[in-house]
Amino acid sequence: MPNYNEITLAKELIRFPSITPIDAGVMKFLAKKLTAIGFKCKILEFKDKNSKPVKNLYARLGNSQPNFMFAGHLDVVPPGNMKDWTIKPFSPAIKKNHLIGRGANDMKSAIASWVVAVNNFVSNNKKINGSISLLITGDEEGVAINGTKKVVDYLKKKKEKIDFCLVGEPTNPNKLGEMIKIGRRGSINAELTIIGIQGHVAYPHRAKNPSTSLIKILNEIKEIKFDKGTKDFQPTNLEVTKININNTADNVIPGLARATFNIRFNNKHTSSSLKNRLNKIFKKITKKDKSNFKVDYRVSGEAFLTRPNKTTYMIQDVIKKITKIKPKLSTTGGTSDARFIRKIAPCLEFGLVGKTMHKVDEAVSVSDLKKLTKIYYNILENYLK
Ligand SMILES: [Zn+2]
After folding, report:
1. d(Cα 68, Cα 165) in Å, to the nearest integer?
2. How far is ligand 1, taken at its centre, from the CA of residue 16, in Å?
């Protein structure tokens, strides 16, 4: 077995400037490392007519079940203002016991920890009772069209059975061990256009001002009490994110008024139940005002929850043993690729501390990284031995 170390491997991964959706050779590099451990690797490139091609990786070690999968991404967000960085973002360095570099936190280091944990586990065990696999995408930070979503479809088609999936995204707000994510809220964006009739402000009876209906609608939808939240989820919330009337004259009643809003919803709703409810309000108000509306919805994901099972509690115990903190089972935060994987396997997310995600001088504590390798090793040991 090769002699891998999580810090060295994390640095090697960070050196590839894999700014989403560019691969920069990182997928092939990781595949080579995994092949040396004994994995069978398949690089899956997907394309779509409206989006750039993306490289993904599915790797599996062993043929028997259960198959324990780790999921993550090797793409990173752009570095932003280079002048604000104390190092070059793709030339990682260790300062004050922190590894700094773009992707150090989100989430190349967690992938390095997982690979080292697997390598150690395979070295220490002649035979494993099951399989270990990895699903690594290059399209998590981007549009998420040619990434995990399509790998999941591929795995379904190949009848590849995944018994449990651990997503290695940074889940801890401040300290390693604080938080496991067992589900995520759903997210839906909507762009609403109210269509009126343009005219002279002095002759309102000859025009139809769309802003009047828009204001009433936004007021009514913001007042909706969707729910009070559940044991596992925060209450559903709607936020207006844009209001736009593209009018350059002060003496013209505009013909169109637009607003964009986002809803983060729990598992008491689905995107279609919410759409139905909102559409009724749009119809009611525009009918009364004799205006018209058009609405475009974009659903990023439905709410989901993996009910805690014995693997969840095993992982919670392992984390507690190593960090001395009992992690909370949470569903807070944004969406992640678990929204796609949950269609083929129960999912849980646990990774590093997410404080510096997407920031300049993105960093990870070296001791956290070593602890994470231990945690991942113990999870494998408990699950597969
Ligand atoms: Zn991430």
Report:
1. 6
2. 16
pLDDT in tens, 163-203: 999 999 999 999 999 999 999 999 999 999 999 999 999 99
CA–centroid distance, 228 to ligand 1, in Å, is 29
Q: How far apart are CA 244 and CA 260, in angstroms?
A: 9
- Cβ(238)–Cβ(221) under 8 Å? yes
Question: 275: exposed, middle or buried (C-beta count within 10 Å: 0-12, 13-18, 19+)?
Answer: middle
* HSE (side-chain half, CA atoms, 13 Å) at 67: 19
Q: Is residue 75 annotated as part of the catalytic site, yes or no?
A: yes
Nearest-5° Cα angle at 128, 127 to 134: 130
Active-site annotation holder among 6, 75, 141, 169: 75
Which domain-ending residue is among 250, 273, 301?
A: 301
Does 219 share its domain with 278? yes
* 199 and 179 in a common domain: no
Over its C-alpha atoms, the chain yields an Rg (Å, rounded) of 24
Cα dihedral sign for 367, 139, 79, 33? Answer: positive
57 and 173 housed in the same domain: yes
What tens digit of pLDDT does each residue of 231-266 get?
Answer: 999 999 999 999 999 999 999 999 999 999 999 999
Nearest to residue 72, comparing CAs of 144, 27, 142, 137?
A: 137
CA 77 / ligand 1 centre spacing (Å): 9
Residue 112 one-letter amino acid:
A
